[in-house]
# Entry
Amino acid sequence: MSVKNMMQNLPAGRTLALVGVLVLVVVAGWFTFEWTVNRIYVEPGESARLRFKGPPLPFLPGSRPAAPAGQFAEANPDNPTGWPQQLGVLEHMLGPGRHFYCPLWWEIIRVPDIVVQPGEVGIASSKMGKDLPAGEFLVDGELGSTEFKGILRK
# Structure
């Protein structure tokens, strides 16, 4: 007996109830998946670095070209915290709190926040960009807007 025949044999009230139960099961399943698998909690005092891996299977949506080596993945200008236009590490990091990212498409790496106390010296270095030319030791510019990687002059 096929599903179509079973549905035709049910009274209208039971069919409606069956559809309602199926919708309820799907919504409850999605809610459970979001709050158990996709939920990431970033503790105070740490940030989360995101790397967009793309789809786990080639036929799923989300396939993108890879970001060039030494550069951040290009973010969507309309939604910088949404799906990027390239595979790779995003410049935007997640702060403390609850976030929802599917681990099949995203790699989440928790990074401790570093606080430089008064009287201490902090050294900021850029790990993204091109290598410094020969004879250069310090990088000019601000963090996030430098062309080269290395220790920042400021």
Notes: The radius of gyration is 24 Å. The first helix runs from residue 3 to 9.
